[in-house]
Design brief:
ABC transporter involved in vitamin B12 uptake, BtuC, 15 helices, about 350 residues, mainly alpha
Length: about 350
């Protein structure tokens, strides 16, 4: 029997993270060039969920909070959750604590697809806003297909062959991305800014594109959660316990890659969330993947919403930093802290 979901007894630990997520979404509705007051934002959000709070109605402020800031924050939360879950799955399937959504080249494939779209001006040609995200999604899928094909040619979907195929694919895609940037100097600024990640000007429309990928990826991962725990025992032990390791690994990698490609398609490349969130939650809540992935999703969502909030407020006059810069600035030192303080560390 495949699939196991977090038991109710494991979920109270997630309550503080869930409350932190709600608080971060509310805080994200306060920041921006349009002046707001916490009481006004609280009244607007309260009325949006059916709580009739007293006070005047400002249509302009209501539109800014609900149509712009809230949807942007919800998208950031979803992307953070997706990257965190994908990182946790990659780490489990590959049995590599340094694995993250970049390991198999899926992020690189999505970045190459988006760069190709920007360099060719497909958004202007097609007259639509979704040309770049759809190309990014296609690039991520093509990268996963290349990794799986190379793995099968190299001896099957074993952990070692998947990692090697991912390294080869990621390196090749990095070279292709550099080639696109070198040959299209007019689009260089747009490509670089997109690759650095961010949510400026993104919201409800991008969320509609992201959610199907998120739902499909989470469904695949949820079905094979039990197998994900068993794969940690090793190939031989997993087979002895009746696990079809090739099928389980394929479905888990596909689910995590769907989450990654969907996230990169709407936000660009954002690093460290998929590495830091699973590690932090593993330290706090244990290694069982059911509760681990739930808590990692909640943690990743909070981290990315707060990172986006910092990206909007650190610079004056409404200027924004790329969110990928912010996550790298806090993610690098935090991951060093995790390594230096890990249990059982020795001086060797």
């Amino acid at each position: 029997m495949t699939g196991t979901f977090p038991r109710a007894g494991n979920l109270p630990a997630a309550l503080p993270l869930a409350l932190a997520g709600l608080a971060s979404l509310a805080a994200a509705c306060l920041a921006g060039a349009y002046p707001t007051h916490p009481g006004e934002v609280a009244r607007i959000l309260g009325r949006a969920v059916g709580i009739p709070l007293p006070g005047p109605d400002d249509p302009t402020l209501t539109a800014v909070v609900l149509d712009l800031r809230l949807w942007r924050a919800v998208l950031a939360y979803g992307v953070g959750a997706a990257l965190a879950v994908a990182g946790g799955v990659f780490q489990g399937v590959l049995r590599n604590p340094l694995a993250d959504p970049f390991t198999l080249g899926v992020s690189g494939g999505a970045a190459f697809g988006a760069a190709l779209s920007l360099s060719l001006g497909l958004a202007a040609v097609t007259g639509g806003l979704f040309a770049t995200p759809l190309c990014a999604l296609a690039g991520g899928g093509a990268a996963l297909a290349a990794v799986l094909t190379l793995s099968r040619l190299g001896g099957g979907l074993r952990r070692e062959t998947v990692v090697l195929a991912g390294i080869v694919t990621a390196t090749f895609l990095s070279a292709l991305l550099s080639l696109v940037k070198a040959l299209n100097e007019e689009s260089l600024a747009g490509i670089v800014f997109w690759i650095m990640g961010g949510f400026q000007g993104r919201g409800k429309a991008e969320l509609a594109l992201f959610l199907p990928c998120f739902a499909a990826g989470m469904l695949l991962i949820g079905i094979f959660l039990r197998e994900l725990d068993i794969l940690l025992l090793g190939e031989t032990q997993a087979r002895q316990l009746g696990v079809a390791t090739g099928r389980a690994r394929l479905c888990l990698l596909a689910g995590a890659s769907l989450l990654t490609a969907g996230a990169v398609a709407v936000s660009g490349v954002i690093g460290f969330i998929g590495l830091v969130a699973p590690h932090a939650c593993r330290r706090l809540y244990g290694a069982e993947h059911g509760p681990l992935l739930v808590n990692a999703a909640l943690c990743g969502g909070v981290l990315l919403v707060l990172s986006d909030l910092a990206a909007r407020t650190l610079l004056p006059d409404g200027a924004e930093l790329p969110v990928g810069v912010v996550t790298a600035l806090f993610g690098g030192p935090f991951f060093c802290f995790l390594l230096l303080s890990r249990p059982g560390r020795t001086g060797e």
